[in-house]
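User: Write out your own:

AI:
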Amino acid sequence: MEKSAQNFLFKLLETPSPSGNEAEFQKVWINYVKKFAKIDTDEAGNVIASINPEADFKVLISGHADEICMTVTKIDENGFVRFTNAGGINPHVLAGLQVEILGFAKTIPGVIGFTLNNSRELPDKPKCKDFYIDCGAKKASELKKYIRTGDYIVYRSSPQLMLNDRIVCKALDDKTGSFIVAEVIRKLSRKKVKVGVFGVSSTGEETNMRGAYFAGARIKPNIGIACDVTFNTDTPGSDEGNPPEVALDKGPALSVGSPVNVKVNELLEKAAKRLKMNLQFELTPSRTCTDADQIHFSGKGVPVALVSLPVRYMHSPIEMASLKDIDAIVELLVETIAKLTGKEDLRPVKP
């Protein structure tokens, strides 16, 4: 990965973007992408970068900017903060974590404590209500100057490079997708593309997918490609239930199943073959649970595909992915889109 691109990725990972308040992250994304594409925004908080936007045939690529988070529900009289989830928080990993409360007046650091039951252990199925945040305050009034009900809480985590070009941080789901979209746009801006390309850093995927619907309805693309993450199966205990093999460093994972247009997947597979790139596959029999689902049902309907980055420890502060896989997804999407003529027929069956 180029050093400037890696610096951009790290900046994205370091910028909070709780689902519902992604604005600061989007400003970072705009500052990077505006150098090589036309920039627009919408009421959902999306940022849309376009190349050749007047073309009749349009391709939308989307990676969501938001991260899972928590929100303040109340501050008790002793200064402990209670909270609930906004997105797929896993309560099993919460105890002892460091967090940041993005207060209306100031960001306040805290640690997650927990309420012990009679056996001195957490419940078998803990919930957010079994924990609290300790900011070091002695009474509620100390905190109410800075935070209030509804303020967002995010994991405190910084990107770290590991062995074998692997990266660990919170919110690789799906800031890596937003990064990939930016890089695809940057590299396509150097080519003479024959189709309109719309790269979207979308909002709200972790909670209601509002951004994907707004983008699909507005752009009315002929093809939609979501860039997200998928669960690995290459760690101990991850092969239970016999899912397809998905491993780090073995390339992009293409979604296969009812939501995915087979013709769009064929375009991606042909591009991978030209690049001599290995592909992996994940199954999405009914829904992808990504932006692809909302783009698919926007407007008159959009043929979609999903290209995923294998990630370990999803929805935790220590998500892990491979920089090599990130680069491969960028390369695959650039090759696929650059070869489009604008005359592609995406109907699986013809009369």
Summary: The mean pLDDT is 94.
